[in-house]
Amino acid sequence: MKKIILILLITITLTGCAGYKELNNLSIVTAVAFDKKEDNYELSFLIANSPKAQTSSKEGEAKTTVYSSEGKTIAEAAKKIEQIVPKELYLGHINVVIISEDIAKEGFLKIADWLIRNPQTRKKFYLLEAKDVSAKNILKIVSPLESFPSQSIATLIESNSESKAVATSVTYSNFISQILEEGIEPVLPSITIKGSVKKGSNEKNLETTEPDTFLALGPLAIFKNDKLKGFTKEEESWAINIIKNEAKETNTNVKYKNEDISIEASNLKSKIKIKDTQNIEINISGTGNIYNINNIDIEDYKEIEKIEKAWNKELKEKLNKTIKKIQEKYKSDIFGFGNKIYKQDPKTWEKIKKNWNDVYFPNLNVKINTNLNINKTGSLNKTIKGEKS
Questions:
Q1: Backbone angles phi, psi at 254, to 5 degrees
Q2: The domain that contains 375 carries what CATH number?
Q3: 48, 2 in Cβ contact below 8 A?
Q4: CA-CA to 380 of 20 to 30 Å: which in 74, 297, 317, 366?
């Protein structure tokens, strides 16, 4: 949104009042939501309120407005919004698109055509799956940390995908390419509302140190072709991102001697090796620093090695459990094992691709090797309890 403001200021400076009036006649759409209402599509636009020519924005005036309309097609719904918005719609600054569960279960490609055919959209916006709420209501929630809900969502995605490894950032282009790519199925980060929609859409939600309502990222949404099949649990989302090499750092707890030990992992790498159409090998490597430890002597190298061994064992078990669930419950190769086979042996892939998800993928033997090392030098400080004694 800062770019939008900068463009407005530069244009005003260079072109004078005439240029200002021209831009002031645009309704800049920053986010879009797709829902279903019975047999109709409901399309919603989040529009940035432009400053008035005569004065600055009034106190209490909302910075954004949500316009919605229904239609038998997305194009019809969009046309109806054009008829009620007093300014020309501009879609060149969309940075977030939210799709409802009903839309996703029916098939994303039914709405993708409208997005791709619109010449203004840049196709680099983030795509998210609404969970347990309508996509439209997601656009209404205001945050005290960002002026625009769309920017709040984008920031949430970026920060979580980089540090917590539960969510992942997926652009429209990424999602479409995975639908069309051989041997890989797409996933989307999910988003939901914590609290009351009514309170969260009120500007008073910005005035409190503890907002009544806020947006929260949920687990990954699993797709097969372009249709939603279900949602993972948080720990499973974390495991999926590690396997797909999309988690470079993360925090994890390891059980050792009846104590939960926090390990901050970094430099995580995942390499998938195809042996044949029935056997896959995944090698996970990384380093970690120990935190939150009280009753274990971490100056003892043998203790460190035992914690390291427990960490490797626990991660391997979690990854295996997640893979088995995806194989058995969803039968959707979100890991891209088939894509590896396709690139390595195209002739073999041609023979098995029609039955890959339903026959071959569920029966794959996946061997996981972990090589996780704890930084010895970074872990040898005495605990506070130890220093005191």
A1: -120, 135
A2: 3.30.300.210
A3: no
A4: 317
What are the tokens at 153? Answer: 């969502």
Residue 13: per-residue pLDDT: 39
Nearest to 138 by CA among 156, 120, 121: 156
- Terminal Cα distance for the chain, rounded: 54
Domain total of the chain: 2
* pLDDT over 60 (residue 58): no
Interatomic CA distance for residues 191 and 153, integer angstroms = 9
* Closest to 22 in 3D by CA, of 90, 123, 106, 69: 90
d(CA 220, CA 228): 11
Q: Is the pLDDT of residue 256 over 90?
A: no
Are residues 186 and 330 in contact, defined by beta-carbon separation less than 8 angstroms?
no
From 305, 313, 301, 298, select the one nearest 255 (Cα to Cα): 313
Lowest mean pLDDT among 123-132, 143-152, 177-186, 274-283: 143-152
145 versus 119: which is more confidently predicted?
119
Name the H helices within the chain.
2-24, 74-84, 101-106, 109-117, 135-140, 149-163, 172-180, 197-200, 234-243, 301-325, 337-344, 346-352, 376-379, 384-388
How far apart are alpha carbons 275 and 360 in whole angstroms? 14
Give me the mean pLDDT over the 290-296 stretch. Answer: 74
Q: Which residues contact 131 (CB under 8 A, 6 or more apart)?
A: 101, 190, 191, 192, 218, 219, 221, 231
Distance separating alpha carbons of residues 246 and 231, to the nearest angstrom? 18
Tokens standing for residue 5: 């403001």
Nearest C-alpha neighbor of 25 from the set 91, 86, 105:
86
The CA-based angle 100-37-97, given to 5 degrees, is: 30
Domain hosting residue 39, numbered range: 2-231
Residues 320 and 190 in one domain: no
Nearest to 298 by CA among 372, 370, 386: 386
